[in-house]
Amino acid sequence: MVVLDLEFEKFLGQGAFGSVSLFKHERQRDGKILHAAVKTSADQHAKALCQEFQILSKFKGYSRIVQCYGNGVQAKVNHKEGYVEYKILMEYAAEGSLSTFMDRFEYGKLPEPMIREFTRMLLEGLATIHGHGYVHCDLKPENILVFPSRVYDYKKGAWRTSYELKISDFGLSKKEGDTKWWHPDQPFAGTPIYMSPESISHGEIGKGLDLWSLGCVVLEMYTGKRPWWHTNDYLEDLMNCYEPLFPSNLPCDAKHFLMTCFASEPDERKDALTLLSHSFVPRDVNPKLANLKTENPKDLSLGLEKIRQMLYEIKSMC
Predict the structure, then answer these.
(1) Which positions are tagged coiled coil (predicted)?
(2) pLDDT number for residue 178
(3) Together in a domain, 289 and 217
(4) 239 and 133 part of one domain
């Protein structure tokens, strides 16, 4: 499938490094109409687009990462504008981003069971990313795609509509521990309100950054509001290792999950595989994650014991 032969349908959105549009094409063997999301960047962002394609190529076959097509970035001269455009093809998310999906619900708040399921899916995606040595660096609802799905409800004996999440937009992603990118004019990698204290204060890039961002996304699914909606001084609060405000009426296990994501020390946030065993997260782990590394078993055992103790203390306050 060649991007130059695709037929344009509509514009989908604009990002920091380019635009995304919907294209369609006819499959040769059966004439079926297929769709693809095409990300287009100008010359000044070509390097970032190439990097994104290289990273996405490592995640082919992983269900929680948006899939890319083709063998590389394609270049085409835009004769109307007079410059070269660079394009990559990706699978199309018919339900849009998590941000637009949330707008369909009253006050932008998702139902409790859906939040838990979506959290599990995001943890699976982060476990894949971190297992390959990368940090996403810009996890937020706009960079999470929603795909329609159908699951069989055995209790009702019928199929029902469901949704699958996939993490997208790896333009800012970096290898864990990478410091070469840092510059005084750009001291942190991603979107400020979703960044962690250590990433804001001294540009630290580690898996703890993504887990803090995950906490912000979970909080947003509950409240329908951006993190730090209650203050304009969030950068100062982050420098002081404060966490965003979250409602006091959340379930106890949700509170504890958020407290873990918002721990001041990155190591105390655990890792995505460990958090998949948290009581807040439904038990339906992707079997492809089995080969990814997690913490030392002894450390994991001690950590889970500490979590149980903290959960007991939280329940006593509820």
Answers:
(1) none
(2) 77
(3) yes
(4) yes
Across 153-178, average pLDDT: 88
Phi-psi domain of 241 (left: phi exceeds 0; alpha: psi -120 through 50; beta: other): left
Residue 39 counted as an annotated binding residue: yes
How far, in Å, CA of 296 to CA of 155, rounded? 39
Written as six digits, the tokens of 6 are: 């695709």
Q: Which domain holds residue 77?
A: 3-90
Active-site annotation holder among 5, 138, 185, 237? 138
Residues 253-300 pLDDT 10s: 999 999 999 999 999 999 999 999 999 999 865 555 545 554 444 444
d(CA 131, CA 126): 8
- Tell me, what CATH number does 221's domain have? 1.10.510.10
Give the pTM. 0.84
pLDDT in the model for residue 315: 44
Beta bridge partner(s), residue 160:
151
Q: Which of 90, 122, 154 is the last residue of a domain?
A: 90
DSSP for 199-248 reads: HHHH---SHHHHHHHHHHHHHHHHHSS-TTTT-S-HHHHHHTTPPPP--T
Q: Are residues 29 and 116 in the same domain?
A: no
Give the sheet arrangement for strand 33-41, strand by strand: 7-14, 19-26, 33-41, 83-90, 68-78
Express each pLDDT in 196-226 by its tens digit.
Answer: 999 988 888 899 999 999 999 999 999 999 9
| Per-residue pLDDT, 187 | 61
